[in-house]
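Lab channel / #folding
Pinned by the channel admin:
"Please post every new chain as: sequence first, then the structure tokens as a reply. Keep commentary short and put observations after the output so the thread stays searchable."

First post following the new format, from NK:
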Amino acid sequence: MDVRLPLTSAGLCLTLLLGGCSPSDEKRQVSLEEKIAQFEQSLETIEDPKLKDAVAELGGSLLLLERAQLKLDTKPVVTEYGEDALAVLKHYPTPQALVDTYINGLFVLHKESSSDYLTDLQPVFPFNFNIPGAFLFPHGLEWQSVTLSNKRVIAFQPEWSETDPGIQLSPSSSNLTNPDDLTVTYPFIEGLDVDKKSQPQPVSLQGKVEVITPRRLYSFDLTKKDVGQTRTNDNLSVTLLKLANNYAEIEFSNSAPLAPEVREISLNPLIVQARDATGQFLSRSGAINETAAQIEFYQKQLAKMQQQKAWSEAFEKQLDEEQRAFEKQQTRHYTKVYFNGPIDTVEVSLLDFSAVTVTHKELDLPIRRFDPHTTEKTIQPLTLPVVVYDDLAATWLKGATLSEEQLKKSISISQSVDDPSAARIEFNHPRSFNDELLGTSFNPGESPVTFFTQDCNGQRDGPIELPPEAYQVDPIRGDITYDLNLFPETPAYVVGSMPHFLATIDQQTYDARQLPKGLEFKGNALVVDLKLFPAQDWRFFAKDDSGNYLKEILSVIHDASAQGPALFAVHYFYGQPTRLETYQRTNLTTVQYGFEVKLDKAEPDNLDQ
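Reply from TO:
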């Protein structure tokens, strides 16, 4: 029996566990810690193992929920922007068109491995269906086999076997960043050198995919004027219960029954987004999906469990019946969503699963090879029957016009004094498109730095005379490292100037049919003469007639030889470009960032080391 709270990753986000509490919040924290301690003590008194497990599960979930609520309530409201979670869906006329693009845009890359006994395969998806906070279509992808160049078919197995003497196809264990990657493993024979070229190579990957598409998606735009009112569209309804500074409480329902295909599937039909007064989307900081009535019900169930001496089938049946009766009464769903910043408007979107389309497809995908560097003179085609847009490009390219003042305002300073022999001050700023075009020809100039003591009032006092080896300024990394063991006096302040770098970027737009010499479109591929457009200085972005940026699939550099110069680069896009934007770094400016930093103190015990 499962008597845990229905807490899911969509309903309870604990990525926000940060500090910053008022006195009342501190009292709540102390009260919660006392509850946890009392609960743990009460568990020790339960002798029946089944009863103990059930109490631990339900009680632990309730305490986890309370801790999450406390952290969400006490998190400082600092504005942080995110992306439109529904942007990708808005490019397609129907949810089904998005699903078709997902399936038809899938292909497989042959990746070079460092071992003669391994060949890596990378499935490349046109977009990711697992973005937190975005749309959630039920879907599954199952790999079945790989066909080799000698016509052999190797079945997929969920993990590599050390005792299997043959060729194996299994998930890649070496690439945690791409969990969908697969590896073809060839048998290793002690003392026998293997020529990789003589081994049969994978030529196609077989599998099957299934996606369940909802009937439609409908969005409600709500403001404070809508608090307390129910907005309805056909079978979908939304009530904005409360709209506070940084959170919204919402009830929603679908009066139509779920389609039979999804009645046994856990669904999250709700996407809640918020904008501030600037019109930009705020990032989410977490959500709670349990109403006060639900929490009270589970607390009562927990109290009943704690009164038992032993677990029994009759008691389990009683709890089951109570839970089913309670859930039957819950005709509307609830959520309380928190955002990083003050809310102006809320966009509540519902996926309607009252009718669905189930798409099945057997996959037999050719395995393509596009090495990042090749000496092939022929441009290999990579045309896919889909159009996919890059929704992050417009925001990323704002960095092309980054000003000196904007750069300075974005700089943050952090310190580390854990190791007194290598204490560190770091000057960081959010990475932008400007950083991508800085190149390598830096001229940081002088980086004057002076350490000071403090007077009896804690104010900056006199400078400290230091040997050169006492500190080091690294303007490229943007940090200062200093050895407190070499300081004759304890430093309290540091004053100086840290260079940062700003590229001057020239942007031009061209019709795809009228490009300057050295640039040419061949279908969906942009061919760039690297002698005229060096990769260090240039970037390229393509659009189609919709005015949206096309997503780049991959790029390949064609070299004269293994050690020779790069001749040309080829950039492949999802779709047919009709416009090209070029970005060239024309100058590199050093921006001196003046600072005065009050130094963190190292622990006395560390100084003795």
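NK: Confidence is low (pLDDT under 50) at residues 1-22.
TO: also worth noting, Residues 109-188+196-212+359-368 form one domain.
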